[in-house]
Fold this sequence. Notes:
Layout: E1 11-12, H1 13-20, H2 24-32, E2 40-41, E3 47-49, H3 51-65, H4 70-80, H5 88-125, H6 135-147
Antiparallel strand pairs: 1-3, 2-3
Helix pairs in contact: 3-4, 5-6
Amino acid sequence: MMTTLQSDAPLTIGVLAERTGCSVPTIRYYEEIGLIPAAQRRPNGHRVYNEAAQELLTFIRSCRDFGFSIEEVRALVSLSKSADRDCVEARDIAQAHLEAVRSKLTELRALERSLVKFVTSCTAACAGGPAPKCTILRDLGRAAMATSSPSNCCG
Protein backbone atom coordinates (compact mmCIF):
# COMPACT_ATOMS: atom_id res chain seq x y z
CA MET A 1 0.00 0.00 0.00
CA MET A 2 1.40 3.36 -1.03
CA THR A 3 0.86 6.41 1.12
CA THR A 4 0.77 9.92 -0.24
CA LEU A 5 2.57 12.78 1.42
CA GLN A 6 0.27 15.57 2.45
CA SER A 7 1.46 18.94 1.21
CA ASP A 8 1.03 20.45 4.67
CA ALA A 9 2.77 17.62 6.54
CA PRO A 10 5.75 18.92 8.51
CA LEU A 11 9.18 17.95 7.27
CA THR A 12 12.00 17.07 9.60
CA ILE A 13 15.34 18.69 8.92
CA GLY A 14 16.67 15.33 7.67
CA VAL A 15 13.85 14.93 5.16
CA LEU A 16 14.27 18.56 4.09
CA ALA A 17 18.00 18.00 3.60
CA GLU A 18 17.36 14.89 1.52
CA ARG A 19 14.77 16.59 -0.67
CA THR A 20 16.81 19.71 -1.33
CA GLY A 21 20.32 18.30 -1.51
CA CYS A 22 21.45 20.59 1.30
CA SER A 23 23.21 19.24 4.35
CA VAL A 24 21.63 19.51 7.77
CA PRO A 25 24.38 21.90 9.00
CA THR A 26 23.79 24.10 5.94
CA ILE A 27 20.08 24.30 6.68
CA ARG A 28 20.83 25.23 10.29
CA TYR A 29 23.30 27.87 9.09
CA TYR A 30 20.82 29.39 6.63
CA GLU A 31 18.29 29.54 9.44
CA GLU A 32 20.84 31.12 11.80
CA ILE A 33 21.73 33.89 9.33
CA GLY A 34 18.08 34.53 8.48
CA LEU A 35 18.23 33.29 4.90
CA ILE A 36 15.36 30.94 5.66
CA PRO A 37 12.72 31.50 8.36
CA ALA A 38 13.21 29.84 11.71
CA ALA A 39 11.72 26.38 11.85
CA GLN A 40 8.82 25.51 14.07
CA ARG A 41 9.77 23.28 16.96
CA ARG A 42 8.12 20.13 18.16
CA PRO A 43 7.67 19.68 21.91
CA ASN A 44 10.89 17.62 21.90
CA GLY A 45 12.76 20.57 20.33
CA HIS A 46 13.22 19.05 16.87
CA ARG A 47 12.90 21.40 13.94
CA VAL A 48 10.05 20.92 11.47
CA TYR A 49 9.54 22.73 8.19
CA ASN A 50 6.71 23.16 5.70
CA GLU A 51 6.63 22.82 1.92
CA ALA A 52 7.31 26.56 1.51
CA ALA A 53 10.62 26.06 3.31
CA GLN A 54 11.45 23.24 0.88
CA GLU A 55 10.69 25.47 -2.12
CA LEU A 56 12.77 28.31 -0.68
CA LEU A 57 15.67 26.04 0.15
CA THR A 58 15.56 24.52 -3.34
CA PHE A 59 15.73 28.04 -4.79
CA ILE A 60 18.64 28.93 -2.51
CA ARG A 61 20.47 25.72 -3.42
CA SER A 62 20.06 26.54 -7.11
CA CYS A 63 21.44 30.03 -6.56
CA ARG A 64 24.41 28.65 -4.64
CA ASP A 65 25.02 26.04 -7.37
CA PHE A 66 25.38 28.96 -9.78
CA GLY A 67 27.98 30.47 -7.47
CA PHE A 68 25.97 33.39 -6.11
CA SER A 69 27.27 34.65 -2.77
CA ILE A 70 25.13 34.51 0.34
CA GLU A 71 24.39 38.24 0.05
CA GLU A 72 23.46 37.88 -3.61
CA VAL A 73 21.19 34.97 -2.67
CA ARG A 74 19.65 37.07 0.08
CA ALA A 75 18.88 39.80 -2.48
CA LEU A 76 17.45 37.28 -4.96
CA VAL A 77 15.26 35.70 -2.28
CA SER A 78 13.99 39.14 -1.34
CA LEU A 79 13.21 39.88 -5.00
CA SER A 80 11.40 36.57 -5.39
CA LYS A 81 8.98 37.66 -2.67
CA SER A 82 8.43 41.27 -3.79
CA ALA A 83 5.84 41.70 -6.53
CA ASP A 84 6.30 45.48 -6.39
CA ARG A 85 10.00 45.30 -7.35
CA ASP A 86 11.30 45.21 -10.90
CA CYS A 87 13.03 42.15 -12.33
CA VAL A 88 15.79 44.47 -13.55
CA GLU A 89 17.20 44.14 -10.03
CA ALA A 90 17.55 40.38 -10.51
CA ARG A 91 19.13 40.93 -13.91
CA ASP A 92 21.61 43.40 -12.41
CA ILE A 93 22.64 40.89 -9.74
CA ALA A 94 23.05 38.18 -12.37
CA GLN A 95 24.98 40.58 -14.65
CA ALA A 96 27.41 41.51 -11.87
CA HIS A 97 27.90 37.82 -11.08
CA LEU A 98 28.45 37.05 -14.77
CA GLU A 99 31.15 39.71 -14.94
CA ALA A 100 32.86 38.24 -11.88
CA VAL A 101 32.72 34.74 -13.43
CA ARG A 102 34.20 36.06 -16.67
CA SER A 103 37.00 37.74 -14.74
CA LYS A 104 37.77 34.48 -12.95
CA LEU A 105 37.74 32.65 -16.28
CA THR A 106 40.33 35.10 -17.60
CA GLU A 107 42.49 34.44 -14.54
CA LEU A 108 42.06 30.69 -14.93
CA ARG A 109 43.04 30.82 -18.60
CA ALA A 110 46.23 32.71 -17.67
CA LEU A 111 46.93 30.12 -14.99
CA GLU A 112 46.35 27.35 -17.53
CA ARG A 113 48.85 28.94 -19.96
CA SER A 114 51.47 29.14 -17.21
CA LEU A 115 50.93 25.53 -16.17
CA VAL A 116 51.17 24.36 -19.79
CA LYS A 117 54.54 26.13 -20.02
CA PHE A 118 55.71 24.49 -16.79
CA VAL A 119 54.73 21.00 -17.93
CA THR A 120 56.10 21.47 -21.46
CA SER A 121 59.41 22.79 -20.09
CA CYS A 122 59.76 19.88 -17.70
CA THR A 123 58.90 17.35 -20.39
CA ALA A 124 61.50 18.84 -22.73
CA ALA A 125 64.28 19.62 -20.27
CA CYS A 126 64.29 17.46 -17.20
CA ALA A 127 61.56 14.82 -16.91
CA GLY A 128 63.08 11.75 -15.29
CA GLY A 129 65.94 13.67 -13.70
CA PRO A 130 66.49 14.62 -10.07
CA ALA A 131 63.55 16.57 -8.59
CA PRO A 132 65.67 19.49 -7.27
CA LYS A 133 66.73 20.21 -10.88
CA CYS A 134 63.14 20.23 -12.20
CA THR A 135 62.26 23.28 -14.26
CA ILE A 136 58.79 23.36 -12.70
CA LEU A 137 60.25 23.82 -9.21
CA ARG A 138 62.71 26.42 -10.49
CA ASP A 139 60.01 28.34 -12.37
CA LEU A 140 57.60 28.21 -9.44
CA GLY A 141 60.32 29.68 -7.22
CA ARG A 142 60.95 32.46 -9.72
CA ALA A 143 57.23 33.16 -10.11
CA ALA A 144 56.88 33.50 -6.33
CA MET A 145 59.83 35.88 -6.16
CA ALA A 146 58.48 37.98 -9.01
CA THR A 147 55.04 38.41 -7.41
CA SER A 148 56.13 39.09 -3.83
CA SER A 149 57.70 42.17 -2.38
CA PRO A 150 59.89 42.36 0.73
CA SER A 151 57.10 44.09 2.69
CA ASN A 152 54.80 41.10 2.08
CA CYS A 153 57.28 38.46 3.10
CA CYS A 154 56.12 36.02 5.73
CA GLY A 155 53.03 37.74 6.86
